[in-house]
Amino acid sequence: MNIYRKIADAMQDPSVSAFVEEEKIGLAEVKHIKEAISQKEKQEEFLDLPEGEDAYPFLTYKHSIRDFLRGEYGFDELAEVPKGVDADFAIPCFSIAMIKGIKPQEAAIEIAEAIKKECAFIERAEVTGGYVNIYVDAKALGQETIVSVETLKEHYGASRAGKRAKVVIEYSSPNAAKPMSVGHLRSTIIGESLKKIYEAQGFTVIGIDHVGDFGTQFGKLLYAISQWKDDDAFAKEPVKEMLRLYVKFHEEAKSDPTLEDKGREMFQKLEAGDAKLARQWADLCAVSADDFEKIYAMLGVKIDLLLGESFYQSRIPDVIARCLEKNIAVKNEDGSVAVNFADEEFPSFLLAKKDGSSLYAARDIAAAEFRLEQFDPVKIIYVVGGEQTLHFRQVFKTLGLLGHDAGKFTHDSFGLVSLPEGKMSTREGRVIFLEDLINESIERARKIVAEKNPELTDAEKKEIAEAVGIGAIIYNDLSQSREKNIQFTWDRALSMEGNSAPYLQYAYARAMSIVKKAGDVPVFVKEHIVIEAEQEQKLVRMIARLPEAVQHAQVAGAPHIVATYLNALVQEFSRFYNECPVLTAEGATRETRLHLVRATAQVIKNGLFLLGIRTLDRM
RNA sequence: GCGCCUGUAGCUCAACGGAUAGAGCGCAUCCCUGCGAAGGAUGAGACCGAGGUUCAAUUCCCCGCAGGCGCACCA
Question: A314: Cβ under 7 Å from strand B?
């Protein structure tokens, strides 16, 4: 049960104060999380994971090559292998040639000779132009990689590189009293995926949903409730009624500018602890949070800590006092408090209004300090839209001035979602609600399933439609890099072919179908793995690269690296599927291919898990 | 006005400073009496512009141009 529901329930007792209750419940939940973390830290399973850099064959090879180059020449650069070349690694020899005063090609010949002697895993090293193309012994790579997948299974790709250091990720953070729109989708999905990717790299992640449950917007809503609330409508569909009131407030405010002041006044009262308003506040947050939980359940998102902005209000006076004391902030004549940055590095930053009520700037600072204090994280990541870049720079800078390590804070921003008609706006009614998007996607997927596989039961169709429909939405977002703005169109968001989740899920289902038809997959014997056909080699190379992709995605804070990797993997698998029959093959070929298929399925599953997308044995 | 982000094929997107810039959609032509055609094969098709740094620039720097977003009592 979410915190707001608990608060609302506790308020059955009229002597209970909403914000005191919130403080109590919030702290209890934080305590609970800390206990869960220390329990988890005792689990030995973690130690079975590969340590990091050197744990996987492909990464081990890469590391050896780099070590050799660095030791011998002081350079360790490797180049991306171009599409037409099948090599596993490529060494550009230009800078080495420069230093030695010889031609790149001569340097390449020298390096090729030397590295072949040094690294036993290299089958051959070819020189083309100034490059050395390194071909790893595919058979050995295949054996080692399959061993790795077979033993680690769902952990294949993971490592304990993060050494259980704690990372806080703030994400999703919808506004209470408003339905979630597709605008919130990005933060929710990116944050959830980053959380999984960091965890896969051995970090302990605390995912916080920083709900927008406070501020002047609530004053406005409370005022609207006092004037125009329709009790019957609220009883039936509370969130819709709140949305109507919110929109009405802004419509009325156009002709009556005094409404803005009335909203601010209401918020001031709420923050000061007005019992009646606090009760209303708790109720409307509770119905909103129920709504969010419904959507999180559909998306498969698991929030560790749902704690809104209001939770930090008790800490704000202290934040402001310290800012004033350290001359970080000044109190203006009208009573407002602002941070003025030296050299006008940033515009000044308002912490409190002239009427004394708080602003989100102060709440964000208080929240950051609370997280540092409670979780002692090495990093706090904010998955918030790019329009708040300046705000976070100001927050981080102020935290630095307060004596915290500003380097711990990162704003992983992302581009705006707009509609063909223009910027999304809840007030203007120009918005697509997340629930509608999800339902539409499931419906489209259901039609496709019904058409392709009419023999499935309704229950199966339903499950498949959900996994495929939701997967399509998630993948659509996570397959592109964060910073770009996205113009929402139904067809794009719900694409089910080509580079899409269903494409990956489909490959998984086909792979599983082979495994199933094969009956007993022979017990894995390393020596029985004999990689021969070209397409087998290409596939095994891709399978070997998942750990690198996960590592890269974590360092870059970029889930799309995993998505891009998976798409490339599945393309190789689909070619393999067409070119290399498995069930009709015999002997070692059959056994090898069967293990390749099974390993591919495992990799798809692990990769999609990191994106928050389910796999299905049938679809 | 100042700041941040983005500019790659008709469209939507990839590419640790490295070779012939990759995919998907769309388009054209093929492949199911061989493990599921939500698939595969072939083809046409692109780095916003001008400088600079570098052996090497789509990538880094500078100046433009275009689009988006910010710049105090909203979040």
Answer: no
Q: Over A221-279, what HEC string results?
A: HHHHHHHHCCHHHHHHCHHHHHHHHHHHHHHHHHHCCHHHHHHHHHHHHHHCCCHHHHH
Residue A555 pLDDT level (bands cut at 50, 70, 90): very high
Q: Please report, rounded to whole angstroms, the spatial distance between the CA atom of protein residue A558 and the C1' atom of nucleotide B51.
A: 33
| Whether A220 and A284 share a structural domain | yes
What the block records as the tokens of A296 is: 């999180």
Q: Is the pLDDT of residue A53 over 70?
A: no
List the Cα angle A189/A194/A195 in 5-degree steps: 100
Q: Is A480 a domain residue? A: yes
Domain finish residue from A87, A108, A140:
A140
- Percent of residues, chain A, with pLDDT higher than 70: 100
3-class DSSP state of A422: strand
Q: Are residues A215 and A321 part of one domain?
A: yes
- How does A279-303 read in b/e, with b if 16+ C-beta sit within 10 Å? bbbbbbbbbbbebbbebbebbbbeb
Whether residues A101 and A166 share a domain: the answer is no
Structure tokens at A340: 């003025």
A602-619 as b/e, with b when 16 or more CB fall inside 10 Å? bbbbbbbbbbbbbbbeeb
pLDDT, position A589: 95
- A128 assigned to some structural domain: yes
A13 touches strand B (CB under 7 A): no
The CATH number of the domain holding residue A128 is 3.30.1360.70
Q: In terms of domains, do A267 and A357 share one?
A: yes
Nucleotides of B under 7 A from a protein CB: 3-7, 12-25, 34-41, 55-56, 67-75
- Residue A115 lies in domain: 57-140
A168 to A4, A388, A444, A564: CA distances (angstroms) = 22, 19, 36, 26
> Given A108, A140, A172, which residue is the final one in a domain?
A140
Each residue of A585-618: pLDDT tens digit?
999 999 999 999 999 999 999 999 999 999 999 9
Whether residue A575 is found in the same domain as residue A464: yes
**Residue A18 sits in a domain of what CATH number?**
3.40.50.620
CA-nearest of A56, A98, A160, A28 to A544 is A56
A498 and A607 together in one domain: yes
| Residue matched to tokens 């996960």 | A550
pLDDT band at A487 (very low <50, low <70, confident <90, very high): confident
Question: Which residues 99-158 on A are within 7 A of strand B at the CB atom?
Answer: 104, 128-131, 133
Q: How do residues A377-410 score in pLDDT, each as one tens digit?
A: 999 999 999 999 999 999 999 999 999 999 999 9
pLDDT tens digits, one per residue of A232-246: 999 999 999 999 999
Domain count for chain A:
3
A443/A410 same-domain check = no
C1' of B35 to CA of A509 (Å): 11
**DSSP secondary structure letters along A502-521:** HHHHHHHHHHHHHHHHH-SP
Please write the tens of the pLDDT for every residue from A54-102. 779 999 999 999 999 999 988 888 998 988 788 999 999 999 999 899 9
CATH code assigned at A491: 1.10.730.10
